[in-house]
Give the backbone structure.
Amino acid sequence: MRLAKLNRTWACLYLCGLFALAGCGAKPAANPNAPVQAMTNHGAPVTMAEAEEFTKKLDAALLASDMAALNELIPTEEILLHGVKGLNASDASIQGFIRGMRKSGGMSTQLADVVQSGGVYKLLRIRDVNRRPQPIYRMQTPDGAVNYHEYSLIRYPNGNIGAEDVYIMLMGETFGQFMRRLAIMGMAIDNKSIFASFSPEDQLYVKHQKEIMRVLEGIKSAGPPTGAYQNFRALPVELQKSKAFQVIGLQLAQKVGNDEYLQQMKDYQQFFPDDPSLSLVQIDYFILNNMNQELYDNVVKLETALGGDPYLKLYKAYALYALDKAAEGQKVFADAFAEDSSLQSHLVNYVGLLIMQKKHAAAVQLIKWGEGEKFLELDLANLRENPEASDFVASPEFADLEKWYTEN
């Protein structure tokens, strides 16, 4: 299962928006990495009860694909306009950027598409951060990509409670910060004064815009990913080291093959050893390298950062099984299912991971426990026909499993 995926929406935002502000005026001191200032809250601070009502409205709007309600709850254009505030950009240029964002669908469309296509957008909790309630959601796409979003809420001038910004864990920054960077990079293309104020690394975004576009078009393309990944690896190393391109590289490498994916995750670990997103990114790395104690410790760290998530307990339980601690793993699986019964359907995935890692005895233990607890119903005939399970099917552990099914 892959966690580190960049949804195509973000690539579209790059493609449609990055160069939309070219030619506008800007203050020379604009810094693409400067933090976005907080918006003004109009009226009383948002209460916990109002935050709970926000989440109920968000859940209902996503379920109904009510874009009007979603755009009110997550006012993407307001977030964008606030992000570029103070850049002295012309109205025409800003409107061009907004048009690019609308063309891509924006964050609300992305979330609605995930839910409508069978994915999950689940509220984990609302936590108090400096006396401000902040809802945390897990986004889980149908193809297994996982990300976490944390909302900062404010009261807008019309009295509505909406998102001031959204922290995207995989990106390691907020949506507003991401959009501000795109805007400033776009402005620098034809504005020599702002270009000169950039660091050498930031100037590379402008100097290599054509090469960047080829990489980003590769993400949108449904064709073979090899060429797009080669284009990515051909970018200057300084560009490849940037957070945005490391995430893009992960998605492209994942499509090419495990060797490329592992190498890209190694790069991410090297370039961003202390980044909050690393714990999320390297789950796959530890699984693919059969580093089960590291996987367990990493998930504990991620749980602490999020305040917990029953979905993450599945990885802890898997790691315990792989470490020959089946009894502990059973308890963690059971705890996860007690918190969220919909996660029971994922148990077969972890059986598959144990088989892939040639942990045959652990796989049999998990199958027997899952069948006994009615969490799992395995088809041995399908398993026999699966070429990826051939070693398992030829093992004495599988013979023992067949005998167990016959007797039970």
User: Anything to note?
Assistant: The CA atoms of residues 360 and 396 lie 9 Å apart.
